[in-house]
């Protein structure tokens, strides 16, 4: 499965694990990288020292390339951007903002820069700024989302930029990966399926909630605030959507979800916490090791498109 993405990142398979806040820590990142994909540590809003420690711990578990996802809204973004260079991280993906002010520093250090984008305009801007690739993330994804679906977003971005495009959102198996290649992507990013792997350190309640999810269990909160978030339905989403419908203030809604992701991931409170997951949760039915999952994905994809000219 050699593509422009495997060559760019020095990995075996063009499969990237999403940099999910509170979920994507060093055990998971190392597990995915050892399996031949690209693991990511999700910096989220964590301080730079925590990110540095995560990077060093990941290096003890893998000698393969791995990356860091930096959330640009984080108050520690400036410090984390420097830590990426100081610790010799090979790849950085970015979300929730514009990474242009860090790009020169990262470029000089030889870091591959892959912004996550939800629009053609941002993809073109990132290419002009020097990005090595982009992740085109559709609204099927878990967590913070845009409006366009993966099916319509990926081909439009592929047509708009010269750099390789990685498809994200709504990909659960080899059929999804094959479809992404058909749309012009050179790789995929997956989050939800990796949440339930053996290496993932999230609370078992969170994993069980995903495994038991049905096709109708996904909800989007925050559309009225301009910050839509996809999670699995529970008491919190029901209350949030009710308040949203009643015209509650942004502050009131924020209060309801404050610390919600940590509550679900760390404490296992899947009733009041925010169980962020993509629409593919209904397709996730078993817990596998990262290696077994990646091997399964590759086998399924190969069976569908091997020899069809999608690999180099």
Quick description:
The protein is an alpha/beta fold.
Descriptive account of the structure:
The chain is an alpha/beta fold and 312 residues long. The protein has 14 helices and eleven strands. The strands form two sheets. The protein has an eight-stranded parallel beta sheet. Strands 7-11-10 form a three-stranded antiparallel beta sheet, covered by helices on one side. Strand 5, helix 6 (120-129) and strand 6 form a beta-alpha-beta unit. The chain is globular.
Q: Which structural class matches the secondary elements?
A: alpha/beta
Order of helices and strands: HEHEHEHEHEHEEHEHEHHEEHHHH
* Unreliable segments of 5+ consecutive residues: none
Helix content: 40-55%
Strand order of the largest sheet: 1-9-8-6-5-4-3-2
Quaternary state of this entry equals single chain
